[in-house]
Amino acid sequence: MSEIDIRPLGTIEGIHEASRLFDAVWVGDRATMPANILRALEHSGNYVVGLFDEDRMIGASAAFFGPPADRSMHSHITGVLPGYQGRGLGRQLKNHQREWALERGVGRITWTFDPLIARNAHFNLAALGTRVTDYLVNQYGEMPDDVNRGDESDRLMVAWALAEPPAATRGDAEILAVVPVPDDIEALRRTDPAAAAEWRVRVRDELRGQLASGRRIGGFDRRGYLIV
Question: Where is each N-acetyltransferase domain found (predicted)?
Fold first, then answer.
């Protein structure tokens, strides 16, 4: 694979291409990230970029500033075409996003992810060392795309402190509890929606209970569970 470039999207053509790319990643939803919203975010100085393999856009990402007093930015959406997933582009994009934010006086980036998707939990909690700040029940309501269709859109909110060391995953001696997640929730939604729904409720109840007791989610283990 040739080197991937990350470039700001400052033209209307690039904005529309990014909007179409998001729809191609989240198949079935024709309004994943409308071009007019992307354009408004870009025009008002927010983070809107494309990932390019030479001249081909193969990914895109958008983030917007949070309350000024927090010096924060919320990373709302990132999508990479299927043929380019699993190649380390998520790490490259986050490093770019981090540098972009620090240059503008932003010290924290937040985003959400589905706690049932094991690879995302590993990347966000173990690889990047973000900290979980909240469990959000059905945060986006019903989502019509092929990835999320038929499930409630529960999310973990995480915060990435850009100038601090990554949050360390707890060692075995420090673990208070573990919360297993499925190996492949996206496949399970297609083959056994009832089982997928059971996973959603079970993980929701366990994580919310742990957070309500004052504990925090302290990482993800590749064996397939969130660590408390």
Answer: 4-148
